[in-house]
Design goal:
Bound molecules: heme C
CATH topology: Cytochrome Bc1 Complex, Chain D, domain 2
Radius of gyration: 17 Å
Helix content: 40-55%
CATH architecture: Orthogonal Bundle
Distance between the termini: 57 Å
Shape: globular
Strand content: under 5%
Largest sheet: 2 strands, antiparallel
CATH class: Mainly Alpha
Number of domains: 1
Mean pLDDT: 91
Order of helices and strands: HHHHHEEHH
CATH superfamily: Cytochrome c-like domain
Number of strands: 2
Length: 132
């Protein structure tokens, strides 16, 4: 009986963690890329660095500009932006060696981990956003 209950609990949590349209393999790939290309600045926990590097974790900017994510990652950015009421104005370098598939994985990792979204983007929609 105990084994059965344990099993039910495990299956229940697995189902909760893996929302139907979240490809966990892709998110894991995105995490590896994040550690290589982004974590130096935005930090592993996505909290950024003081008033110099903006946070990704719970950043209102991401929630309001979801469709810009692929292009921000590919082209970098340099403008005056408000994120969670703090102003940032440093340069983020481009990542123009990353493929569309790698950018898709990164976008989905950032969305899932830092914006707590389960509405992840398909490779096709990321491609469209990159070509806009
Ligand atoms: C050299 C440091 C650096 C690296 C590396 C870097 N960024 Fe940034 N990032 C910044 C800075 C600085 C800004 C703010 C730019 C501005 O003010 O225009 C920013 C802005 C952003 C934003 C929009 C603002 C926000 O916080 O929501 C996103 C999203 C983002 N970066 C994601 C990434 C991702 C994903 C990677 C890895 C592919 C990455 N960045 C790599 C420094 C960096």
């Amino acid at each position: 009986m105990r084994v059965v209950i344990t099993l039910i609990v495990v299956v229940f949590f697995a189902a909760c963690m893996e929302a139907p349209n979240v490809n966990m393999q892709q998110v894991a790939h995105g995490q590896q890329l994040y550690e290589i290309h982004c974590a130096n600045c935005h930090q592993l926990d996505g909290k950024g660095i003081a008033r110099i590097i903006p946070p990704l974790l719970n950043a209102d900017y991401i929630l309001k500009n979801r469709n810009l994510l692929p292009k921000i990652i590919r082209n970098g950015m340099q403008q005056r932006i408000f994120i969670n009421r703090i102003i940032y104005q440093q340069k983020m370098p481009n990542n123009n060696k990353l493929t569309d598939a790698e950018i898709t994985a990164l976008v989905n990792f950032v969305e899932f981990r830092f914006a707590k979204s389960t509405q992840l983007l398909s490779a096709d929609s990321v491609k469209n956003l990159l070509n806009k």
